[in-house]
TrEMBL record:
Organism of derivation: Telmatocola sphagniphila
Pfam family for this entry, one: LacAB_rpiB
Record Gene3D superfamilies: Sugar-phosphate isomerase, RpiB/LacA/LacB
MF (Gene Ontology): intramolecular oxidoreductase activity, interconverting aldoses and ketoses
Organism superkingdom: Bacteria
Protein name: RpiB/LacA/LacB family sugar-phosphate isomerase
């Protein structure tokens, strides 16, 4: 067992489940696509209102959640210290000790729920490869997690796709690159360009449909219309 390396820091630890606040949007993927021209003309409709810039656009996050299993534990500890030194408020969702038998969903899901409920503004999730963490986080509605190991995607994922959880592999990259990538992720701002908002809205509409009753067998295929 590795001794905790952060005794001098007061990192908030989240050990209770967070109530999920689902991302609410009406309509369907088909109607989103069909009404894209109306959005461009700024017509008064629910679609037009959806296209209005989000209040978070242009704002840098200050409260960051972080979570990792044994595969990302050591890197998580280093990242947490660095973020604290840079003035971020860090909420640690575990693991709180190195346990080779722990399971990444136990830590990643509470982090993802905190993102969904806006208890934290952005999240950093780690496992050995980052793949499991990404899959788990994206099971929670309104979470947009990406597996990132390159500089370009670290900011592009936020700007174009409103990525709010940054996933990486603790056994894949070193601490220096990981910290550089996360700093880029946290400094990136969501784009207010209409084309990006439209695409994000399409994904959000699909997510809402799936979370309520699943895609209808009669749901039109946007590519066939």
């Amino acid at each position: 067992m590795i001794k905790k390396s952060l005794p001098k820091y007061q990192i908030e630890r989240e050990e209770l489940a967070v109530t999920l606040v689902p991302f609410s949007i009406t309509g369907s993927l088909h109607s989103v696509k069909q009404n894209s021209e109306a959005w461009s003309r700024n017509e008064e409709s629910w679609e037009t209102k959806l296209l209005q810039p989000s209040p978070k656009e242009g704002k840098a996050p200050r409260k960051v959640g972080i979570a990792a299993d044994h595969g990302g534990y050591n890197l998580k500890e280093q990242i947490a210290v660095t973020l604290l030194d840079k003035g971020f408020e860090v909420v640690d969702f575990g693991a709180y000790e190195l346990n080779p038998e722990d399971d990444y969903p136990d830590f990643i899901i509470p982090l993802a729920r905190a993102i969904a409920s806006e208890k934290v503004e952005r999240g950093v999730a780690l496992c050995g490869s980052g793949v499991g963490a990404t899959i788990a986080a994206n099971k929670i509605a309104s979470v947009r997690a990406g597996l990132i190991h390159d500089l370009y995607s670290a900011h592009q994922g936020v700007e174009d796709d409103d990525m709010n959880v940054f996933c990486l592999g603790g056994q894949v990259i070193g601490s220096a690159l990981a910290i550089e990538l996360i700093e880029i992720f946290l400094s990136a701002k969501v784009s207010g360009a209409v084309r990006h908002i439209r695409r994000r809205a399409m994904v959000a509409a699909l997510e809402q449909i799936e979370s309520t009753h699943g895609l209808s067998k009669t749901e039109p295929n946007p590519r066939e219309s």
